[in-house]
What does this fold into?
Amino acid sequence: MFRGFDDVNIHNYLIIDTSNTTRNNSYKIIDFHLSDRCNLHLLLLVPFPTDNDIAPSSLIYRRSGFHHLSDTYPQVIGHEITHGFDDQGRQHDKDGNVLPWWTNKTLQAFQSRAQCIVDQYGSISLPELDKFLPNITVTLNGINTLGENIADNGGLRQAFLAYQLYVERYGEEPRLPGLTEYSPMQLFFLQNANIWCKSTDFLSLLLQVITDPHTPEKFRVLVPMSNMKEFSDIWNCPVGSGMNPKNKCQVW
Ligand SMILES: [Zn+2]
It folds into this structure.
């Protein structure tokens, strides 16, 4: 079932391998990356509920993330597809060639929206590093992380829209026993936050901020959600509160 990184060469198709899926071996390949050559590199095997598992669709749609074995695909697909239209991906045409194919109007709109993301993430400081670096204010690097941040924001939004479509089509799901205080839509966001739980130390965090194109997990939760009006509506966040800032960024 697992075909590794380099032995797939699939042009312009999304492939989800459902073969050999059994209850005891309930894995599907779900993470892929749209490379420069427009190949899909299948990266992960992930657990996925089978027909016999108790797993509301809302949980499946909200299970998200990219590099954990608990991932499943709606947001991952959204994230990876959005990479095809981020600051790097946009420079490639449908065949993977580096070729500008957007109109100037589209490009200008993209750059303006992308700048919003750059400024937003770049203004986030990390006070937990202050005691180690007393004379330096460390902030996220909004430029180096732009592609991943665009994909994070786009991926969450697309997963949410997909789940909304599911609810429109099949009706609202019942509340989950034990968590009945939360609506399915609220659980969508809770589960998304849950998969990013991580504890880190000073050096790891500092290294991540300096070298990693991915934003530290805490902000992969907070920022994309705070950019969604739907999140604020569902959680009744007052305008101007931390998770409902007046200035929201949206590229896709
Ligand atoms: Zn990514």
